[in-house]
């Protein structure tokens, strides 16, 4: 069976209207074998929920039909019971991402949606789950009028009274609007004006929206951006869209062929990592449906939307969208939390997401054991300031440390760098270089030659950071470290945070410049180079300092970088997503001073609830402790 890698699309819709479908447990195994990381189910199917326990598959779960919505709308205690029976009974072993209150409800029932959503949300608040599980509703495209051009999109007058407060609720709870987007339906209804190529992601059609200036090459993006325009006109421009259904039938009606279905769904798979012209970046999307369902009612096409036949064979071939191994992006795995997954689960997350580099901040034995033969490259921190002093004190101390923390694991654990100290300050800075020398000697004595020894520094070891060419080390000890790294061929590990630079000076530094967004160009008259983002400027400042320390051949590895999603100046999900996606997409190109692939590590894998310091420190995670994403990121470069 050909492998259909839908991780970038995020998920498929699992309908069960068939009398010949596989058991729920086999379906979950099929999802896992195909690399499908998320699914939607249309009611709280207990057999499916049980099969999903521990699978790592994130789900959208619908509350049920309009009767179920009406019950939740009129009865807050019913919402509490529903959350208890269908969420708390499975969470967190089942990763529930969204609860859908109503699927394509008609205008006559739309007044039920908001009170039902509010009651379910309140029940989640009472259960302590509202930050992890979001409540939304799934709408048809026909709630939007004036969809061409996309910038004219507006909620229909007869549903505006419902959609505007729903959108405000979503904005207030930081939840997405779920939208069922079917270019097939639009094409079938108007094949004279809509070309088949445009509807199925094939080349040959370009449509320009003269009001927005944006250009569209496929109908799917235009439809999504029409909904974004409607949200803007409703006063909620920050609400994100998740496409809760899209697909194309392979038989049973006009233009319903295996070839057209393959082209459309392949186009979705290849397109969503880029987002739309109006909202570039990953677009969370669910393909309808997993199977051809022989008991679907309505026209014949409804029974032919499946990616798979009931016997689990593909309905038509889909070329996998391979998520490339992330060659230059790693993620820092901090453990300062009391609700984090087990080390083995975390390693499996890295593997399933294609993240093949990790940093840990001490030689945690459970993590090191879990990393054996995983193929993940590792930065291993020696430990805190006391460990740096201990390693500097004697060569025998370093030998003991290597004996206990490196030899039992290497090479089954692919330890790439040892970080002797992280952002060391004060008198301990004088111990960094002797500690590095001792560790290198201990590695050599143990016959281990493949591990480089370095230290991780903050950006404040650099003085004169603007323009980048003026960069110079602020402390004399750094010159000795730089020259030692040059002699051993090791990189300098640098923690680079445009967030802190921006938060400290938002008047002078533009948010776009700090988050890899277009609109700002800065020229360094000292070297003639032009910068379009703050990250590059900060890294090149370090390169300038290395050159001035006669260590111009030392490579910089960015050992930490990230952006918080809450609790601070500029700390939001949108900004965090923009920054971290920008970093992932950018590092393959390097900096103006050092073009080429750069190695960088995002901080951090999880929101860590026991981090001390500013509140932002607890919100740098890409994932919640339940392993659901804080926001959508595509790990490719």
From TrEMBL:
<dbReference type="InterPro" id="IPR000490">
    <property type="entry name" value="Glyco_hydro_17"/>
</dbReference>
<protein>
    <recommendedName>
        <fullName>Glucan endo-1,3-beta-D-glucosidase</fullName>
    </recommendedName>
</protein>
<comment type="similarity">
    <text>Belongs to the glycosyl hydrolase 17 family.</text>
</comment>
<dbReference type="GO" id="GO:0005975">
    <property type="term" value="P:carbohydrate metabolic process"/>
</dbReference>
<dbReference type="InterPro" id="IPR017853">
    <property type="entry name" value="GH"/>
</dbReference>
<dbReference type="GO" id="GO:0042973">
    <property type="term" value="F:glucan endo-1,3-beta-D-glucosidase activity"/>
</dbReference>
<dbReference type="Pfam" id="PF00332">
    <property type="entry name" value="Glyco_hydro_17"/>
</dbReference>
<dbReference type="InterPro" id="IPR044965">
    <property type="entry name" value="Glyco_hydro_17_plant"/>
</dbReference>
<keyword id="KW-0326">Glycosidase</keyword>
<keyword id="KW-0378">Hydrolase</keyword>
């Amino acid at each position: 069976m050909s492998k259909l890698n839908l991780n970038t699309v995020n998920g498929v819709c699992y309908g069960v209207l068939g009398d010949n479908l596989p058991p729920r447990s086999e379906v979950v195994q099929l999802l896992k074998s195909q690399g499908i990381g998320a699914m939607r189910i249309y009611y709280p199917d207990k057999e499916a929920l049980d099969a999903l326990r521990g699978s790592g598959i994130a789900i959208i779960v619908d509350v049920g039909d309009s009767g179920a919505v009406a019950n939740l709308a009129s009865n807050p205690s019913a919402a509490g019971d529903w959350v208890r029976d269908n969420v708390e009974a499975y969470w967190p072993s089942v990763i529930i991402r969204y609860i859908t209150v109503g699927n394509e409800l008609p205008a006559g029932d739309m007044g039920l949606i908001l009170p039902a959503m509010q009651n379910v949300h309140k029940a989640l608040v009472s259960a302590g789950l509202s930050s992890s599980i979001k409540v939304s509703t799934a709408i048809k495209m026909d709630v939007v009028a004036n969809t061409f051009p996309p910038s004219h999109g507006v909620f229909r007058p007869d549903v505006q009274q419902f959609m505007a407060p729903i959108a405000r609720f979503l904005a207030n709870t930081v939840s997405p609007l779920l939208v069922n987007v079917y270019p097939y339906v639009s094409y079938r209804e108007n094949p004279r004006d809509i070309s088949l190529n445009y509807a199925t992601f094939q080349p040959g059609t370009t449509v320009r929206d003269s009001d927005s200036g944006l250009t569209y090459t496929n109908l799917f993006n235009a439809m999504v951006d029409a909904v974004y325009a409607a949200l803007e006109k409703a006063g909620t421009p920050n609400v994100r869209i998740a496409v809760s259904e899209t697909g194309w039938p392979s038989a049973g009606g006009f233009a319903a062929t295996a070839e057209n279905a393959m082209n459309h769904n392949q186009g979705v798979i290849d397109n969503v990592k880029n987002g739309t012209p109006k909202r570039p970046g990953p677009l969370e999307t669910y393909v309808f449906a997993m199977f051809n369902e022989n008991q679907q009612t309505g026209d014949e096409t409804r029974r032919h939307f499946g990616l798979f036949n009931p016997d689990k064979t593909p309905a038509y071939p889909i070329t996998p969208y391979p998520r490339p191994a992330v060659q230059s992006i790693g993620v820092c795995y901090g453990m300062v939390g009391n609700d984090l997954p087990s080390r083995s689960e975390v390693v499996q997350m890295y593997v399933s997401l294609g993240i093949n580099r990790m940093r840990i901040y001490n030689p945690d034995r459970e993590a090191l054991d879990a990393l054996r033969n995983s193929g993940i490259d590792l930065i291993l921190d020696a430990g805190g300031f006391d460990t740096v002093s201990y390693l500097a004190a004697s060569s025998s101390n370093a030998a003991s440390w290597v004996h206990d923390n490196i030899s039992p694991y290497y090479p089954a654990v692919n330890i790439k760098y040892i970080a002797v100290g992280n952002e060391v300050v004060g008198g301990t800075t004088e111990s960094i270089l002797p500690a590095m020398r001792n560790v290198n000697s201990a590695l050599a004595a143990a016959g281990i030659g493949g591990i480089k020894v370095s230290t991780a520094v903050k950006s404040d070891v650099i003085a004169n950071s603007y323009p980048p060419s003026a960069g110079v080390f602020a402390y004399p000890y750094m010159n000795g470290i730089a020259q030692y790294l040059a002699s051993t061929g090791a990189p300098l590990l640098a923690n680079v945070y445009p967030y802190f630079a921006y938060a400290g000076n938002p008047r002078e530094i533009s948010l776009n410049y700090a988050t890899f967004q277009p609109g700002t160009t800065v020229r360094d008259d000292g070297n003639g180079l032009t910068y379009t983002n703050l990250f590059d400027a900060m890294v090149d400042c370090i390169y300038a300092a290395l050159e001035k320390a006669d260590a111009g051949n030392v490579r910089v590895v960015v050992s930490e970088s990230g952006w918080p999603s809450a609790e601070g100046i500029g700390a939001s999900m949108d900004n965090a997503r923009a920054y971290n996606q920008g970093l992932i997409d950018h590092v393959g190109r390097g900096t103006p001073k050092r073009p080429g692939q750069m190695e960088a590590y995002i901080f951090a894998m999880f929101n860590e609830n026991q981090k001390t310091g500013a509140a932002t420190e607890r919100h740098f995670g890409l994932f919640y402790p339940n392993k659901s994403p804080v926001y959508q990121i595509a790990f490719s470069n």
